[in-house]
Amino acid sequence: MAPRTAKPLQEFALIRGLKRHFARHTAGLVQGIGDDAAVIETTVPIWWHLTTDLLAEGIHFDLKSAAPRSIGYRAAIANLSDLAAMGAIPRYLLISLAIPKQVSQSHIYDFYRGLMKACRPYGVVLIGGDTSASKTGLFLSITLLGTTTKRRALFRHGAKVGDLIYVSGTLGDSLAGCRLLAQDTSRRSSKKNRSQFSQFHRQFLIRRHLHPTARIAEGQWLNTGRLASAAIDLSDGLSGDLRHICEESGVGAEVEIDNLPLSPACRAYAKARGVSPVQLAITGGEDYELLFTVSPKSHHALERQAKAQGYRMTHIGTIRPRRFGIQMTSQGHRQPLPSTSYEHFC
Amino acid sequence: MAPRTAKPLQEFALIRGLKRHFARHTAGLVQGIGDDAAVIETTVPIWWHLTTDLLAEGIHFDLKSAAPRSIGYRAAIANLSDLAAMGAIPRYLLISLAIPKQVSQSHIYDFYRGLMKACRPYGVVLIGGDTSASKTGLFLSITLLGTTTKRRALFRHGAKVGDLIYVSGTLGDSLAGCRLLAQDTSRRSSKKNRSQFSQFHRQFLIRRHLHPTARIAEGQWLNTGRLASAAIDLSDGLSGDLRHICEESGVGAEVEIDNLPLSPACRAYAKARGVSPVQLAITGGEDYELLFTVSPKSHHALERQAKAQGYRMTHIGTIRPRRFGIQMTSQGHRQPLPSTSYEHFC
Predict the structure, then answer these.
(1) Does residue B58 belong to the interface with chain A, where contact is any CB pair within 8 Å?
(2) Over its length of 346 residues, how does chain B's per-residue pLDDT go in tens digits?
(3) Are B312 and B170 in the same domain?
(4) What is the pTM of this model?
(5) Domain presence at residue A5
(6) What is the CATH number of the domain that holds A242?
C-alpha cells in the first residue's frame, strides 16, 4: 500500500517557521520558499554551478555524538567547498530533511542554524527545500547554486602533462581531529593519552574537523586570475581526489610526499600516536582544501600573488603522462600512491 | 565517532554506469555528471524555477508493494507537476540516492529508468546528483530545474476576489486507484469485491495512480497566454492545495462541489464502495491536475482556447474575500471545506 504524500499540518507550520527564521530576500530572487518552485532571475550571460549532497544518519553523521548545529555546518561546508573548487560564487541554497519522530523541532532549528552559519559569510540565501517524516534515520539533502561569468570556471579535466600540482592549507588535520574526538568517546580514552601533546594542538585539530573552512576566496582567485588549469576540493582525501583529476584529464601524477604541507599540530599528533603524518595527509578526507594544477608559465604569477594575498599554497608534485600512473616519491624512491577506500573509518 | 564521507569504490562505478546510461548532452549544458558541480549556461534574461522533493521509504513508497520503476516515475511526475504549476519548461534534473545494502544495482537502474521515462518527453537532462550508503531505508532526493521567460510565471499569490476557480482533468482518480491496489494486497480482498465494477474502470484508476501525467503543456499554455492569475498543482488534494492559493493570495474561496469533474471510473468506484465521490475529489492527492484562478475578463478566452486545444478545464468555484473563508456549496447549502491531514492513508 502506497501511503499518500500529503504533508501533516505540523510540517506546514515547521516550513513557515523555518522561512521566517532563515529565508531572506536578495536581488535576483523572484520567489523563495512558499510556492511550487523557487524562482531566480538571470539578466546577463552567466554560468550556473549546481552541487548536491545527500547525508545519511549513521553514514555521514551520528546524532549521538555530533551536535545538529555541527552537522549542519559541515554539510554546508562540503557543498561550499565544491563551488570553491569550480571558482564559483555561492548564491542560493535548497535544503530537504527527512525527520524521524524522535528528532525535536529545536534540533531541526539548530541544524539550520549550523547550515546558515557556514553560508552567511558568502551571502547565500535559503530559497527552498522539502520536509518529510522518516520512519528510520535523519536524512538531509542540500543543493547549492553558485555562479561564475560565462566561459570561466575551474574543472577537473584541464590538467596537462608538465603542470605543477598544488594544494592549499595543510592536510590530514581533519582526520587527526576526528580520531581525537572518537577516542574521547571510546572507553580506551585515558588521561595519559590525552596529555601526550598540547591542548593547543588538540583544539586546533578538533576545530579543523568540526569547523572546516571552504576555500571560496582562493577558488575565485584561481579562477578569475586564470591561474589553475584544473581543480578539485579535498573531500575524499588527496589520494582519491587526485585520482579524479587524473581520470578526467587523462593524465598521471607524481606526488613528492616530503613536500606535503602538514600543520605542527598534525605532526605532533602523529608523533604522539606513532602514526605516519604522511599517511594522514594522503588518506585523510574532509580537509576541504583545494587541490589544483598550474601550468609552468603561470607558476611564478601564482607564487607571487599567493604571497601577496597571504594564501598558503604548496607545490606538491607534477602532472605526468597517463602511463606513468599515480605515484609518490620520497628521496628518490618511488611507489604507487595508495588508494583510499570507504572502509577507513577515522 | 563521525565516519568519513569518502565513497566506496563501488559507488564511483555506479555513478559512471548511471552517467553512461542516463546522462546526455544538450545545448546550454557546460558540465554534467563528473565534476565538483554541474554547470549550465544562460545567455538571455531568464527565470529559473527550482523544485525539490525528498522521498522516504515507508513514508512515500513501499519497496515491498511498488516497483522501483514506478517509484521513480511517480517521483519525477511530482516535480514535473510543480514546474507545470509555474508554467515552466522542465530542463535539468539532479538525483540523489541513499541506498541500503539489500537494494540491488538493477533496482537502482530501474528506479532511474522510471525517472527518465517521465522526464524524456520534455527533453529533461540528468546533470548530477549524489549517491550514498544507507543503514536504514532507501531515500531519494530530486531537484528539477525549469525556465520561463523573465517576468512570466504562474504563482500561488495572484488570485483576486471575483476570479473564477478552475481545475484541469478529473479529481479523485489517484486515491481510488491507490485504494484498489491496497485492497489487492490486503487479506480482505475477495473476488466479489473486485467484480463490483468493470475491469476498464479499474485499470483506468490504477493507471491514474501509478502513471499520472504532469500538466506541463497546459501550464505553459496558461502562462504564456496570460490566462491564469494564480496556479498550483494538486499533489496534496483540492482541499489542501486550494488553501495554499488562498493563504498566499490573502483571499477566501467558494467551491461548487456539484461542479467537481469526476471520471466515470471514479463515480463507478464510489458507487460500488458506497463512498462519496466528492469526498474522493476533495481529499484525494496525487492527481497532479492544475488548480488555477482566472480573472472574469479572461474567462471567455480561456474557455474558447481550452476547447480549441482539447484541454478539459472545469469551472469549480469563485475566489471570495478572506473573511469568507474556504467553503463548499451544493444546492444552496454551504459548509466549510474540510481540511485534509496526513493521517488519511488511502
Answers:
(1) yes
(2) 334 445 565 777 888 888 888 888 888 999 999 899 999 999 999 999 999 999 999 988 888 888 999 999 999 999 999 999 999 999 999 999 999 999 999 999 999 999 999 999 999 999 999 988 999 899 999 999 999 999 999 999 999 999 999 999 999 999 999 999 888 766 555 555 555 679 999 999 999 999 999 999 999 999 999 999 999 999 989 999 999 999 999 999 999 999 999 999 999 999 999 999 999 999 988 999 999 999 999 999 999 999 999 999 999 999 999 999 999 999 989 999 998 644 334 5
(3) yes
(4) 0.91
(5) no
(6) 3.90.650.10
A145 lies in the same domain as A162: no
B259 assigned to some structural domain: yes
Structural domain total, chain A:
2
Residues of A whose CB is below 8 A from B96: 52-54, 141
What are A161-184's pLDDT values in tens digits? Answer: 999 999 999 999 999 999 998 887
Which residues, 6 or more positions from B221, have their beta carbon under 8 angstroms from its beta carbon? B227, B305, B309, B311
Q: Which of B16, B36, B61 to mutate to test the interface with A (most CBs of A within 10 A)?
A: B36
* Residue from B4, B52, B92, B235 whose CB has the most chain A CBs within 10 Å, to mutate: B4
Q: Which of B128, B149, B170 is the last residue of a domain?
A: B149
Residue finishing a domain among B125, B149, B173: B149
Write out pLDDT tens, residues A3-26.
444 556 577 788 888 888 888 888
Residues A163 and A129 reside in one and the same domain: no
Output the domain CATH number for residue B91.
3.30.1330.10
Q: Quick check: B40 contacting A, CB < 8 Å?
A: yes
Report the 3 state secondary structure along chain A.
CCCCCCCCHHHHHHHHHHHHHHCCCCCCEEECCCCCCEEEEECCCEEEEEEEEEEEECCCECCCCCCHHHHHHHHHHHHHHHHHHHCCEEEEEEEEEEEECCCCHHHHHHHHHHHHHHHHHHCCEEEEEEEEEECCCCEEEEEEEEEEECCCCCCHHHCCCCCEEEEECCCCHHHHHHHHHHHHHCCCCCHHHHCCCCHHHHHHHHHHHHCCCCCHHHHHHHHHCCCCCEEEECCCCHHHHHHHHHHHHCCEEEEEHHHCCCCHHHHHHHHHHCCCHHHHHHHCCCCCCEEEEECHHHHHHHHHHHHHHCCCEEEEEEEECHHHCEEEEECCEEEECCCCCCCCCC
Are A280 and A132 found together in one domain?
Answer: no
Same domain, B115 and B31: yes
Range(s) of the domain holding residue B94: 9-149
| pLDDT tens per residue across span A247-257 | 999 999 999 99
Size of interface A-B (CB pairs under 8 A): 326
If asked whether residues B187 and B311 sit together in one domain, one would say yes
What is the value of ipTM here, to two decimals?
0.89
B140 and B203 together in one domain: no
- Residue of chain A minimizing CA distance to B11: A342
Q: Does B16 touch chain A (CB under 8 A)?
A: no
Any domain includes B268: yes
Q: A143 and B143: CB-CB below 8 Å?
A: yes
Query: Which chain A residues are closer than 8 Å to B137 by Cβ?
Result: 134-137
CB contact under 8 A, B35 and A339: no
Q: Are residues A164 and A281 in the same domain?
A: yes
- Cβ of residue B315 closer than 8 Å to a chain A Cβ: no
C-alpha cell at B316: 469549480
